[in-house]
Amino acid sequence: MASASGVFETSARRGRRTAAEDWLLQSAEDRDTAVREWTAELGVAVLTAGITWDAVRLPYAVLDGSFGRDVAPGALRHRLEQLELAGAVFCDPFRPCLYVMVPAGTDAQWPRLPALPGVECLVRTGPCVQHVGVPRLDRTDPTGPYWLRPPDRTSGRYADPNRLLAFLRARATEPGPEPPAPPSAA
User: Residue 180: what pLDDT?
Assistant: First the structure.
């Protein structure tokens, strides 16, 4: 059977993809609207952080000071593997930032990291609701927002927030120029 991207998939892979889509759609204010957004040309649905997941947004340069807007997806994946950060991760090459999926509630222990501009835990806390443009699971190329590691992989849905925070704290104490702040959202 062909997937939305036209690639033949095994039934196990289809099952993981369906489960991952259902998991992501639990964060939609309106499931039908989110599905329509995913099927539109850009393939990005606006979902609400803090329901089934929080997302830690970090500029590419936080992973490596040499990473800019045009860094190759393979270089980003390789750096995440070096850091032993498992879990789902997607990118927005327009910002340019990574979004690392962590368990909902991570924000309760997440500190502000002023030495790392642009790093933020996106959540739904009290009156604050943060919406995140999440790409369709088959979007894996950087022509727009895309998945480096979709949540349908066996590496798990969530990154370990403690491991991520340990890396970010270490990165904040490294000498050298600060990573640039991401451009403001328009």
Answer: 54
Q: Is 56 exposed, middle or buried (0-12, 13-18, 19+ CB in 10 A)?
A: buried
pTM (2 decimals)? Answer: 0.83
Query: Which of these, 91, 102, 101, lies nearest to 60 by C-alpha position?
Result: 91
Phi, psi angles (nearest 5°) of residue 122: -90, 130
Query: 132-162, pLDDT tens digit by residue?
Result: 999 999 999 888 999 999 997 666 789 999 9
For 1, residues 6+ apart whose C-beta sits below 8 A from its C-beta are 8, 9, 14
Alpha helices in the chain (DSSP H): 11-25, 31-39, 60-63, 73-82, 161-173
